[in-house]
Amino acid sequence: MINTFTLDGMSIPFSEGQTIIQAAMAAGVYIPHLCFNPQFKPHGSCKLCTVKVNGRQSSSCTHQALSGMVVESNTTQINDERRMLLQMLFVEGNHFCPSCEKSGNCQLQATAYELHMMSPHFDQFFPDRAVDASHPEYLLDFNRCILCSLCVRASRDVDSKNVFALSGRGIKSRLIVNAKSGLLADTDFCGDDKAANVCPVGVILKKRIGFAVPIGQRSFDEQPISASPHPVMKEV
Amino acid sequence: MTSHLETAANLENLRRIAIDPVSRVEGHGKVTILLDDKNRVHQVRLHIVEFRGFEKFIQGRPYWEVPVMVQRLCGICPVSHHLAASKALDVIVGAKHLTPTAEKIRRLMHYGQILQSHALHFFHLCTPDLLFGFDSEISRRNIAGIAEKYPETARRGILLRKFGQEVIRHTAGKRVHGTGSVPGGVNKSLSIIERDELLKDIYQMVAWSRDAVLMVKELHHQNPELYNSFGAFRANFMSMVGFDGGLDLYHGHLRGRNANGDVLFDGVDYQNYTQLIEEEVKNWSYMKFPYLKSLGRELGWYRVGPLSRIQNCDFLATPLAEIERREFIAYGGVMPMHAPLAYHWARMIEMLHAAETIKDLLHDDDLTGSELVVSGERAFEGVGVIEAPRGTLIHHYRVDEHDLVTMCNLIVSTTHNNQAMNEAVRRVAQQYLQGHEITEGLLNHIEVAVRAFDPCLSCATHALGKMPLEVEVLNEAGERLSYFARSGAGTHAC
Ligand code: SF4
Ligand code: FES
After folding, report:
1. Which of B77, B283, B285, B369 is the most buried (most CB within 10 A)?
2. Whether B94 contacts chain A with CB within 8 A
3. Helices B78-92 and B151-172: crossing angle, nearest 10°?
């Protein structure tokens, strides 16, 4: 017998141990998310993937699928709340899409388009965060970090290096580099690391690439994030 | 000279008029005029609220971001900043010679920008003054009035601009704030489809550009007294010219002439612009006043833009525009033309040249090539210069060994023209305001002089033709004597 639950009225099959988002993705149904990446253990921090399970809010990236549950995702109310979360992420950092090289390949931007976010709505924080350009091949632009911890998980769980960590609490949370100097150049980070290629926004960037891919050929120019949530970045 | 009007000798008993903001120009500027009780002009100043924060803002950013980021300086000619920054960064990445495809795509983008900007300026912003008269009925002295009375002129203006924007879109990826030019080259060439789409319309654009030259030339011939003398002042002038001496808005070296047209300097490598130009700060203006070091502060100021370029170069490489250039030079006689209104004529000759250049480029197979980027030995300092629609644009950067920008200096066209525009408004104030009861129409004369330079006064974007204008005349006790307010809808005096 196949286990199923309903998602916005559709019947979604799942196998034992799958989370709601995993089952939905396998069935080709998009649930907005940022800190979830199918290659890593879920982190459950961004809350973009929030759905209603039998009427109660829950993160679909951590909530196990159970037979017969009724899940709502694509509703006006939930999408309004997701949009507000996105707006908060935008104003907390410095996200200047028109001059960001990740534009068109950025999951934050693509999700904002998907959810029709038209303005930041809240007052901008304009935090003052310096760029770490110490590494000869990679650059860290902390202005755009959304604290999804994907680089932390990739470096720890795949690369076995622990280059990155999240530090501080609440609004003071920030990404740090595990080196006495705090600089990427003083770690064993390298371009082949999983952590070098996992950031959903424009923090961890290979240097001197910039705007090499023209507008029209970037990942989310071709299809919206709902059609392809984790596109493979183009090699330049 | 009008320099005595920069600062009044004695401020007592003078009343102040402010034209704030100057309308139908890009961005925000104001003119202040001090008059005595007989309406004699004592002081005239053009103030420009320029956005200088950018030079600071860019520090600490990676250099490859700069050509895209600098476009945020200006919504009107972002491509000029995009290309000037790219040229400076070509030096940083050691790209001594771009591939033919990269250079031609950039040229195409630039001439598209010239076309759209010149069309916008002439048709949308200036024809209302030139066709209706400087003090004509204000309610129709705008592009809507033109569209009603001269629908074909308005239509051509719109379509010429649109074509220029399409050229930009195909080369930069977007009409505004594209990404096409990158350090060392470009990120895309033209597809055959894109090229053919542009080719389809280019002949029409050349023809209409030619008609625009004829139109402005006709205006000069009809009223030489006005066109030759309105706000006229003598000045040195400077521009980049091609290495062969011809007009080249994309690349070359610097040449300057004095007011008689004699060459002051030529063949100057713009990497060394700091040896040529110094910038003076004046306490009453946010914008600096550049001058030629060799001539000093008093005498060294100069003019840039179409009027300078057309008279500074030896020839235009496209046939129709070259015929027009010769006629323009012949009209001026032995001396260069200095009249601000001649800017319009020169600007339209450039627009024709841009259209012809685009036509030639579209027939060049290099445009569809695939070699896009080169690099070489890394440098740490670079200067990029381009002749933007409004004049010479200088971008200068230093980049550290970690690839971050440590210094940025920009000299934009409007800054080069700062003193020249001040001269023009002072001259007009003397010619037209002196001793007269001030009316809106008279004040518009001041704006006409400013507009001739096509200044881009800041990065602010205002709805075209909708800028409010407030003019307040106060007596020395600060009491309001008269007041005009103009909203988008019209004018009322109260
Ligand atoms: S750097 Fe990127 S991957 Fe790492 S926490 Fe920040 S946003 Fe996530
Ligand atoms: S994707 Fe589930 S909380 Fe971020």
Report:
1. B77
2. no
3. 30
Q: Look up residue B298 and give its two tokens.
A: 């008093």
How many domains would you assign to chain A?
A: 2
User: Does the reported pTM lie above 0.80?
Assistant: yes
| Structure token digits, residue B141 | 């002295």
Mutate to test the interface with A, among B61, B187, B190 (most CBs of A within 10 A): B187
What contacts 24+ positions apart, CB below 8 Å, involve A22-29?
A22/A65, A23/A65, A24/A60, A24/A73, A25/A229, A29/A73
The pLDDT assigned to B16 comes to 75
Distance, CA of A167 to CA of B230 (rounded, Å): 67
**From the CA of A31, how far away is ligand 2's center (Å)?**
10
Tokens of B318: 């496209």
pLDDT attached to residue B462: 23
- Domain containing A157: what range? 80-210
**How many CB atoms are closer than 10 A to CB A195?**
24
Interface confidence, given as ipTM, is 0.91
- pLDDT tens readout for residues B127-164: 888 888 887 787 787 788 888 888 898 899 999 999 99
Record: contact A210-B373, CB cut-off 8 A: no
Question: What's the CATH number where A129 sits?
Answer: 3.30.70.20
Query: Which amino acid is residue B295, in one-letter code?
Result: L
Among residues A215, A189, A142, A3, the alpha carbon closest in space to that of B173 is found at A215
Question: And the tokens for B138?
Answer: 């204000």
What is the CATH code for B54-416?
A: 1.10.645.10
CA distances from B428 to A163, B34, B145, B230, B470 (A): 67, 14, 25, 7, 19
* Tokens 């713009």 belong to residue: B270
Any chain A CB within 8 A of the CB of B53?
no
DSSP strand pairing (A70-72 vs B236-241): unpaired
Asked if B69's CB is within 8 angstroms of A210's CB, the reply is: no
Cβ of B62 within 8 Å of Cβ of A207? The answer is yes
**Cα of B240 to nearest chain A Cα, Å:** 28
> In this complex, is the C-beta atom of B459 within 8 Å of any C-beta atom belonging to chain A?
no
For B197-244, the pLDDT digits (tens) are 999 999 999 999 999 999 999 999 999 999 999 888 899 999 999 999
Give the distance, in angstroms, between the CA of residue B198 and the centroid of all CA atoms in the same chain.
Answer: 25
Cross-chain residue pair B72–A131, CB shorter than 8 Å: no
Amino acid (1-letter code) at residue B445: H
Report CA dihedral (A157, A163, A164, A168) to the nearest 10 degrees.
120
Are A69 and A100 in a shared domain? no
